[in-house]
Amino acid sequence: MTGKVITCRAAVAWGPNQPLVMEEVLVDPPQKMEVRIKILFTSICHTDLTAWKGENEAQRVYPRIFGHEASGVVESVGEGVEDMKEGDHVVPIFNGECGDCVYCKSEKSNLCQRFRVNPFKSVMASDGKCRFSTKQGNPIFHFLNTSTFSEYTVLDSACVVKIDSQAPLKEMTLLSCGASTGLGAAWNTANVQAGSSVAVFGLGAVGLAVVEGARTRRASKIIGIDINPNKLLKGQTMGITDFLNPKDLRKAVHEKIREMTNGGVDYSFECAGNLEVIREAFLSTHDGWGLTVVLGIHPTPRTLPLHPMELFDGRRITGSVFGDFKGKTQLPHFAEECMRQEVKLDEFITHELPFSEINEAFQLLVGGKSLRCLLHL
Ligand code: APR
Ligand code: ZN
Ligand code: ZN
Predict the structure, then answer these.
(1) 67: which residues sit within 8 A by CB, 6+ positions away?
(2) Residue 338, pLDDT score
């Protein structure tokens, strides 16, 4: 199909909170420095959920194809793409890496000037147009550089990572967002040290990936915090040593954690997307050196719930995008580490459904029943 328009199925969003509609769409051939891929697996992350609900007004662009966690094979490449060819196994990345800009050339950042994650962007970077259209010829908008809820999608090559053809694609889907975000936050952003103490707020896929990152770094105490008591069991499988449910406590979570850890944990991670949780996470760390990493997505307009003077107690706070991984450069190596079973990726896949049942998969996440429901295309 090189150079030709493909007709395929996609799950199209027509409005906030409306069930996605499975319909035939047209997918244009990849343009210069673009890649068209056949998606084999995709899953739903909390960020898709937030976008689907249309919580952020500026994001309400319809019709649109959501989805950013996936794996697949290259169908065809556009002019100038040299690092990939038809048949290569790939994972899309919502936080791209062009390799050329001042950010990509810096070791201090994984935010590319052109392809950094941007929830407001809904067209291709090269020409400001859409590669998807309805059968009537109207544009369907893109999402997070990826739009993976479609049998075929077109991405900038900066947002596609080639991985080992032997890597199990099902599990590799998690590298596209959840696993990389959480593990990377523990490994790269916080650089968790052996023997240290860690508190993880929110035990969804992102939080549990942080737990996995802390476990593989041999942290000695890993406290999981969640308002859903059903998260205890999975948390223990992934390596938490203690579990706290804020609803069962008579005191603030940070007070309890400070008691349990002689003054506070070395690192805390906010993976719930809740402002009060940010404050609890911040106060849970030890003064003098504690570090809080924010991973949750918070709708605007919000500001950090901290008094500036609190920073003089030596606690630090920072955010982490895509686990501070430079996607194209570092993900192939990360995939190899996962293949050597150093990371338990299969534990994140709690459900599997055919692509046609995508709305059921959304409900599993809404109800807190799934970590990741893998959709088969
Ligand atoms: N305190 C503790 N845990 C909470 C709280 C709270 N106040 N509120 C929610 N949680 C828990 C939920 O019970 C759930 O287990 O946080 C978890 C969030 O998990 P998921 O919904 O599965 O989301 P996930 O995909 O892991 O993403 C987490 O990171 O990337 C962002 O947008 C994403 O903000 C989201 C966060
Ligand atoms: Zn995500
Ligand atoms: Zn760049």
Answers:
(1) 11, 42, 44, 48, 143, 146, 147, 148, 149, 150
(2) 87
Distance of CA 220 to the CA centre of its chain: 26
Residue 342: predicted pLDDT:
80
The ligand minimizing its distance to the Cα of 158 is 3
* Cα-to-chain-centroid distance, residue 248: 30
pLDDT of 208 reads 96
Q: In 3D, which of 314, 345, 352, 309 has the Cα closest to residue 168?
A: 345
Which pLDDT score, from 0 to 100, does residue 120 have? 87
- The residue extents of the domains of the chain are 6-176+344-376, 182-320
6-176+344-376: in CATH 3.90.180.10 = yes
Within 8 A by CB and 6+ apart from 108, the residues are none
Residues 6+ apart with CB under 8 A from 127: 31
Residues in the chain: 377
**What fold, for 182-320?**
Rossmann fold (3.40.50)
Name the token pair of 303: 């500001």
pLDDT score recorded for residue 188? 97
By alpha-carbon position, which residue is closest to atom 8 of ligand 1? 272
CA nearest 12: which of 63, 47, 68?
Answer: 63
Find the 165 Cα to ligand 2 centroid distance in Å: 23
Active site residue 47: yes
Query: In which residue ranges of the chain is pLDDT below 50?
Result: none
Most ligand 1 atoms within 8 A of CB, residue of 59, 226, 300 to mutate: 226
pLDDT reported for residue 2: 84
pLDDT the model gives residue 341:
76
What's the pLDDT at 1? Answer: 79
Instruction: Show the DSSP H helices in 217-314 as ranges.
Output: 231-238, 253-260, 275-284
The pLDDT of residue 158 is: 98
Residues that place a CB less than 5 A from ion ligand 3: 98, 101, 104, 112
Specify the pLDDT at position 57: 72
**99 CA from centroid of ligand 3 (Å):** 5
DSSP letter assigned to residue 241: S
